[in-house]
Amino acid sequence: MEILKKKTDIDFMGKFPVALVFSCVLILIGLVSIVVKGGLAYGIDFAGGTLVQLKFDKPPAIEVVREGLKAIDLGDSTIQEFGSKNDILIRVQRSEEKLEEVGSRVRDSLKESFSDSTISVERVEMVGPKVGADLREKALLSMLYSIIGIILYISWRFEFRYAIAAIIALVHDVMITMGAFSLAGKEFTLVVVAAFLTIIGYSLNDTIVVFDRIRENLRRRGKTPLSEIINTSINQTLSRTLLTSGTTLLVVAALFALGGEIIHDFSFALLIGILIGTYSSIFIASVFLVFWENWFKAPKKA
């Protein structure tokens, strides 16, 4: 099945300078956002603390909730809506000892301010600071191990230069997606790490399809420049790339729009990651092979 019936002849290599500027701008904007905001906004999984979700009969005012929490010395907590305006998430930086008491204390402190509304505790979660630090370390290690595995696999199946090209594209994808999270003010949690690992796998799959076609075309290369081989290979796989990415994006977009708050951040990461991953498979990973050949080409003898 093909989405493009006619053979394409797009000069992807010729458009690389524009693509490079575009990528650099996106990465720079993301890095500036992360620096200005003092780093990524870690969720309770990584930062530690206590999370309480409350459900009200009527939409509560955030400031009234904050005033009510001052009675139990939690007025400096992070308070935000969760899904509907009737649901409130309260994040406390410190961890309480007894989970069952936290929700009751928070609910009781708000009863006076919201006497005309019924308040129910939907969930209470707690992560200690040591556990949060341990989870951060394991999340970073999981991404590091996946990259090492990718280098070994692609070096074995193709060549080392293909592995480096794939890693550059993956780092590119992760950096842009992280920047998008910072700009959108979203929290970095274990669920998001799972989304990033999914993005790495999806982007790698697209990249390998293009690499495989490049390798096939190189076998009958003759005197054809590598840039032309890459252009031809990308055009030959373009229909497949657009078809698979397009259908996946439809599903992810549906999850993002209709999946609810629980998977909202996960689907947001996938939405950005799949778009950028498809783009990097074409304009970043493949183009690096030309730079590799130019950099390491043996000098001609006189």
Notes on the structure:
With 302 residues, the chain is α+β, with helices and mostly antiparallel strands. The protein folds into two domains: 16-42 and 131-296, Multidrug efflux transporter AcrB transmembrane domain (Multidrug efflux transporter AcrB transmembrane fold, Up-down Bundle); 49-127, Alpha-Beta Plaits. Helices cover 65% and strands 10% of the residues. It has nine helices and four strands, in the order ααβαββαβααααα. It has a four-stranded antiparallel beta sheet. Helix 6 (160-184) packs antiparallel against helix 7 (190-219), helix 7 packs antiparallel against helix 8 (226-258) and helix 7 runs parallel beside helix 9. The radius of gyration is 25 Å and the shape is elongated. It starts with 15 loop residues before the first helix and ends in a 6-residue tail after the last helix. Residues 298-302 have low confidence and may be disordered.
CATH class group of the largest domain: Mainly Alpha
The count of β-strands is 4
Chain-averaged pLDDT = 79
Q: Helical region count?
A: 9
The figure for the number of domains is: 2
Main β-sheet, in a few words?
4 strands, antiparallel
**Which structural category do the helix and sheet elements fall into?**
alpha+beta
Distance between the termini: 51 Å
The CATH H-level superfamily of the largest domain is: Multidrug efflux transporter AcrB transmembrane domain
How do the SSEs run, as a string of H and E? HHEHEEHEHHHHH
Provide the gyration radius in Å: 25 Å
Proportion in helices? 55-70%
Cross-sheet strand order for the largest sheet:
2-3-1-4
CATH architecture of the largest domain, please? Up-down Bundle
Strand content: 5-15%
